[in-house]
Every structure is written in structure tokens, then in C-alpha cells.
Write a structure and sequence with these properties.
Blueprint lengths: L13 H4 L4 E2 L20 H13 L7 E5 L1 H17 L5 E5 L18 H10 L11 H19 L13 E6 L7 H5 L9 E6 L5 H4 L1 H13 L12 E2 L11
Parallel strand pairs: 1-6, 2-3, 3-4, 4-5
Helix pairs in contact: 2-3, 4-5
């Protein structure tokens, strides 16, 4: 699941780099890329209400949830809904570049900022690539979904369900100013099956700077999944777009 302001397009190369036995399902939130005409969601409940029915019809095989930054919190809420309400827990959960779900998020402070100021602020925080500021069209394309996503983050209520009954991997960039080493350690209380920590070179968007090392680690996880029911390993899926068959 993507970070704030981004979409499924960033995952376009991941399927090629993963094992042929892995089916990649990249979540496309409304208000961006091929869902540009739809208004962006401003509350996580809106996203989950639309996404859960779509995924329930697709998750007949074991699956893994992967989320980056805001996407990690969305992914955690998704795993809780699928597990507690539908008994469809993931086999593994990967939280990337995010603090635990029961801790408050800092307010975005976007009120009163124009698009250029908003982009400049987020570039300074290493939350979006610096190249965006040099292209007025990209600024317009990014700020519309970004404002919706930041409103979603501002409305986020810290919460925690039962510990996930699956292994948990927590990843961060070594130079990420907002996601500290000590902070990610607190994710360990959210799994009853063990937590593994990994630090990658780079900042908040380390997964875009060096996707191959990230995918190598993800491949290790999904090809090692053993379903809790004891059956032979089948296909493993990350999260997927709510309607589209492929990421754009």
C-alpha cells in the first residue's frame, strides 16, 4: 500500500522482479493516476469500506500485506478488519517507514499552504521526491491526492487491535528523520509471532531509491511463507488495487 500522495504506478516493476509464484496486488487509492476523476478519500474508513469487499473476493490463497508510511497504517487496519471480521489474517505483515499504529501522527499543518509551499515543506521532510517541485504539472498532480491523504492522516485516531497472529517485518531508511530506530522497535508489541527489523540505506523514500534490495527482502519473505493451516505453499499476494487488474 502506497505512501501519502502516491499511487500504484510506483510498484509497476515489482512483479517482474518477484518470483513467478507471487501475484502482486497494488492498491490504487482514489483521486490519482487512473482513478484521477474520483475524489480523494479523507478518512481511512472510506478506503477500507471500498477495499475489503474487493480483496475478500481475491484472497483465496495465502497473502502478505506490505505498506509504506501512511500505507503501513492503512495496511495494519486492513489486516485487522480482514482478520477479526472475516478470519482472513495475512501470513506476514511488512510495515515500512512508519511508527506503530497506536501512536499519534504529527499534524500535517497544511492549512493555509498553497501547492508550492506544501510541496516544498514535504520535500524538506524527505516525504516526496525533490524533482516534483521543478514541474508545475507534477505539482498539480501530486497536491490533489496529497491533500486528501494528509487530511486522512490528520483524522487518524491511534488504535491497536489484537496482536497480529503472523510474523511482522518492520523496515526503515537509515536517514529517515521521522521514523527512528527506537520508534520502530515499538512495533514488536503488535505481533504474537515475532518481529524482525531491517534498516535500508536512504531516507523516508528508500524503497524508490533502491527497489531491488527492497524486493529481494520481500521475495525472501513471501517465498518462505508457510500457511498456518499447514497446507503446501501456494501463491502469495501483497495488497492490490481496488478494481484494476494491473497497476498502471
Amino acid at each position: 500500500m502506497p505512501h501519502a500522495g502516491s499511487g500504484a504506478y510506483q510498484f509497476r516493476s515489482w512483479q517482474r522482479l518477484l518470483s513467478p509464484e507471487v501475484s502482486l496486488l497494488a492498491v490504487q487509492l482514489p483521486g490519482r493516476e487512473n482513478r484521477w476523476r474520483e475524489p480523494p478519500a479523507t478518512h481511512m474508513a472510506e478506503v477500507l469500506d471500498a477495499l475489503v469487499p474487493e480483496l475478500l473476493s481475491r484472497l483465496q490463497l495465502p497473502y502478505v500485506v506490505v505498506g509504506h508510511s501512511m500505507g503501513a497504517l492503512l495496511g495494519y487496519q486492513l489486516a485487522q478488519v480482514l482478520g477479526t471480521r472475516h478470519d482472513r489474517w495475512p501470513e506476514h505483515f511488512v510495515a515500512s517507514a512508519a511508527l506503530p499504529p497506536d501512536e499519534p501522527l504529527p499534524l500535517s499543518g497544511i492549512d493555509g499552504l498553497d501547492d508550492a509551499e506544501l510541496v516544498a515543506e514535504l520535500i524538506e521532510q524527505d516525504a516526496i521526491p525533490a524533482d516534483i517541485a521543478r514541474n508545475d504539472r507534477l505539482v498539480r498532480l501530486v497536491t490533489r491526492p496529497l491533500r486528501g491523504d494528509l487530511a486522512m492522516c490528520d483524522a487518524y485516531v491511534p488504535t491497536a487491535g489484537p496482536p497480529l497472529p503472523c510474523p511482522l517485518d518492520v523496515w526503515r531508511g537509515a536517514d529517515d528523520p521521522g521514523v527512528s530506530h527506537d520508534g520502530v522497535q515499538r512495533w514488536s508489541r503488535h505481533s504474537s509471532a515475532g518481529t524482525t527489523f531491517r534498516t535500508f540505506p536512504g531516507g523516508h523514500l528508500y524503497h524508490l531509491a533502491d527497489p531491488r534490495s527492497v524486493i529481494d527482502e520481500l521475495r525472501r519473505i513471501v517465498t518462505g511463507v508457510r500457511p498456518r493451516g499447514g497446507h503446501a505453499r501456494g501463491l502469495h499476494s501483497t495488497d492490490r488495487a481496488s478494481v484494476d487488474e494491473e497497476a498502471p
